[in-house]
């Protein structure tokens, strides 16, 4: 079936790093995502000073939007190049430190302290390291995760969520027979069974 055709496909971390090196990052939106503008109220619920998580963050400019609104932003991204480009493209000074709990991982934090980007695999994180979140912006994240890792990804995300939190998920509708992904095809029925 259509979905079967993508199930076995795996994109390695090395391949993601290469995409960044080659500038093969068609997924990046210079102007940010219009759907976050549209649903910002759903994410924030009128509250201030929230902790917002950006899984598989790339150099998403929406992180800057939320930080500028006074929220505290945490992202995770395997590509150090992406993380450094985020800070330099917004002229944000930052410092860099190791993450004691994760060997080889680094945390890049804006000097102002409200944006912390972990450079490691999302599967290395846990709530004991990054805490829990009031909001999640999942764009190009679940749909970029290898189909075989979806359950693990979702279990982690659910674990990182505070009780009264909001999760905005962007998916892409297309014919999975015509494109091998990513973004991968995630049918609505699967989203329902993954998140319960
Ligand atoms: N959310 C971003 C980027 C989407 S592309 C945006 O909206 O622009 C997916 C990103 O996830 C890539 O930058 C890739 O380098 C990163 N990535 C892939 N696998 C990862 C993993 N296991 N842990 C952390 N980041 C990962």
From TrEMBL:
SUPFAM superfamilies linked: S-adenosyl-L-methionine-dependent methyltransferases (SSF53335)
Residues binding S-adenosyl-L-methionine, per UniProt: 16-27, 56, 77, 121-122, 139
InterPro entries the record matches: SAM-dependent_MTases_sf (IPR029063), Thiopurine_S-MeTrfase (IPR025835), TPMT (IPR008854)
Enzymatic class: transferase
Catalytic activity: S-adenosyl-L-methionine + a thiopurine = S-adenosyl-L-homocysteine + a thiopurine S-methylether
Keyword Methyltransferase: yes
Molecular function GO terms recorded: thiopurine S-methyltransferase activity
EC nos: 2.1.1.67
BP-aspect Gene Ontology terms: methylation
Subcellular location: Cytoplasm
GO CC annotation: cytoplasm
Database matches in Pfam families: TPMT (PF05724)
Keywords of this entry: Cytoplasm, Methyltransferase, S-adenosyl-L-methionine, Transferase
Chloroplast listed as a keyword: no
Family of this protein: Belongs to the class I-like SAM-binding methyltransferase superfamily. TPMT family.
Protein name: thiopurine S-methyltransferase
Organism, as annotated: Atrichornis clamosus
